[in-house]
Write a structure and sequence with these properties.
Length: 170
């Protein structure tokens, strides 16, 4: 009898598919959602204006991040809070995310955790979010530029506008 050892480690976190992401945004905003993969990755840090959600497992290990560019942060935050599209468009033009839109965007990121929680996958929760002016932790910055496993997505929220999100898991 031989003993075969297999490497042990945490179960992999799946990158959510496009349909559940589209459905989540449609349910949250009540708007038509157009979504596609292959977008330019969301840049983080500096003057990017990105909002980054950090997701952890039960042992508080970083397992995933979701990055919204300024446009998606503003449009999703406005659509969730029934804020007129013009307010979000003004924020995008000014390259500043008002606190109310940031708080609503945070809630979208919080609910986004449900897309990671599938059978046989680790249970993830939103640990924190980094706003456009926040300094990213080094591990978050390192994860943000990984090439895989990830998806870079364009998402349009009807009547609001188009933005991008990037998902990176480990």
């Amino acid at each position: 009898m031989s003993l075969v050892l297999t490497p042990k480690g945490p179960a992999p976190v799946p990158v959510p598919h496009l349909k559940p992401i589209r459905d989540l945004f449609a349910d949250l905003t009540g708007r038509e959602i157009e979504i596609s993969s292959g977008a330019e990755p969301v840049a983080v840090g500096g003057a990017s204006g990105a909002v980054v959600g950090l997701y952890v497992d039960a042992s508080l290990e970083t397992r995933a991040i979701v990055m919204f560019d300024l446009e998606l942060a503003a449009y999703s935050g406005a659509a969730l809070g029934l804020v007129p599209p013009a307010v979000a468009q003004d924020a995008v033009e000014a390259r500043e995310l008002p606190q109310t839109l940031y708080e609503n965007c945070y809630e979208v990121l919080n609910i986004f955790a449900s897309l990671f929680n599938l059978p046989n996958a680790p249970h993830l929760k939103l640990y924190t979010a980094f706003g456009p002016d926040d300094e990213l932790r080094p591990d978050v910055r390192e994860l943000a530029v990984r090439t895989a496993p990830r998806d870079d997505i364009t998402l349009e929220i009807g009547r609001y506008g188009t933005g991008r999100l990037s998902i990176v898991v480990r």
